[in-house]
Design goal:
By secondary structure, this protein is α+β, with helices and mostly antiparallel strands. It has helices at about 55-65, 110, 150-165, 205-215, and strands spanning about 30-35, 40-45, 70, 80-85, 85-90, 105, 115-120, 125-130, 130-135, 135-145, 175-180, 215-220, 235, 245, 250-255, 260-265, 280-285.
Length: about 325
């Protein structure tokens, strides 16, 4: 596994809602087993800076049996990691101390033992690397600029992601997930995007499509035919029975080779954390194809007793 390192703030105080001091990451050498099914999630929680919100997120993780939860709009300042209950919280925010944007990943104690590297890139991108069996897993959590921001900000986000992915070995699992603030739309099927999106495509959707095609990534939650309530990831605060305003703007991407490792990807509208987004949960399991080895050519060893006999090939 290629380890990507960045500088972190060693003197960071604990953010609001995270009891205890901040501890920076150290290598661990256990291997997390990916042959059995595990649940991976991404969720825009709007904020975890309010007292008790991070405990609420962990409570929902346990209720849904999630091992790895990516967080968008975490709103914790600076970057680091900390222990909360029996979970490990990794976070990457703005280094000016402000509670704006921010991403994070919360993992169970089983996964925490296998984390080999944590790289906080910015308040919109972070990387977590996990030593796993049968193959290592790299998780990039993102929070993309909203559609009202200039396109240059979104382009810079994808450029930052590319700088990370180009250093990750191609044979390892790469999962990029989060709030992309992009609408891919329904009925547009390619080898990287399925037909089961929602609504109409927007310009940020075009940008995301180009990114997944160039990177050979599959948008997993567009490949599962489900009722609309299991597809939408965001609902408008003005959403009403007479006027439903819901969109699919959060996604879980995986490198094309491991597309079939996700056996299910859907949303859980019943989860509660006072957010206009709902958690997007994927069931993940790695299956590697067995390589058929050629049988070695056998020789009749009895021929060796005849000195003048050559072994034919």
């Amino acid at each position: 596994m290629a380890i990507l390192t960045t500088k972190t703030n060693s003197g960071v105080s604990s953010p609001i809602g995270s009891p205890g001091r901040t501890v920076l990451s150290t290598p661990r050498y256990n291997k997390f087993k990916c042959r059995s099914k595990i649940k991976i999630c991404t969720w825009n929680v709007k904020t975890l800076s309010k007292a008790g919100k991070v405990h609420n997120a962990i409570k929902e993780m346990k209720r849904m049996n999630i091992e790895i939860m990516g967080i968008a709009e975490m709103r914790w300042p600076d970057s680091g990691e900390t222990q909360i209950e029996d979970h490990r919280v990794y976070y990457s925010g703005k280094n000016d101390g402000s509670h704006e944007h921010g991403v994070g990943v919360i993992v169970s104690s089983n996964v925490a033992k296998c984390v080999t590297n944590f790289s906080p890139i910015s308040e919109r991108v972070m990387l977590l690397q996990i030593q796993a069996n049968p193959i290592n897993v790299n998780i990039i959590q993102v929070y993309a600029p909203t559609a009202d921001k200039v396109d240059e900000e979104a382009i810079e986000l994808y450029q930052a992601i590319n700088k990370i992915t180009e250093k990750i070995p191609k044979h390892e699992v790469l999962i990029i997930m989060g709030d992309f603030n992009a609408k891919l739309g329904a009925g547009i099927k390619t080898q990287y995007i399925g037909a089961h999106g929602l609504g109409d495509r927007n310009e940020r959707g075009d940008l995301l499509e180009k990114f997944v095609e160039d990177s050979e990534l599959v948008v997993t939650n567009t490949f599962f035919q489900l009722p609309p309530r299991r597809l939408y990831t965001w609902k408008s605060p003005q959403d009403k029975p007479e006027k439903v305003t819901r969109n699919q703007i959060d996604y879980i991407l995986v490198n094309k080779r491991f597309r079939n490792s996700f056996t299910s990807v859907k949303t859980y509208p019943g989860a509660d954390i006072e957010s206009d987004h709902v958690p997007l949960v994927g069931v993940f399991r790695i299956k590697l194809k067995r390589i058929q080895k050629k049988k070695p050519q056998s020789f009749d060893m009895r021929l060796l007793k005849y000195q003048d006999t050559k072994i034919s090939r």
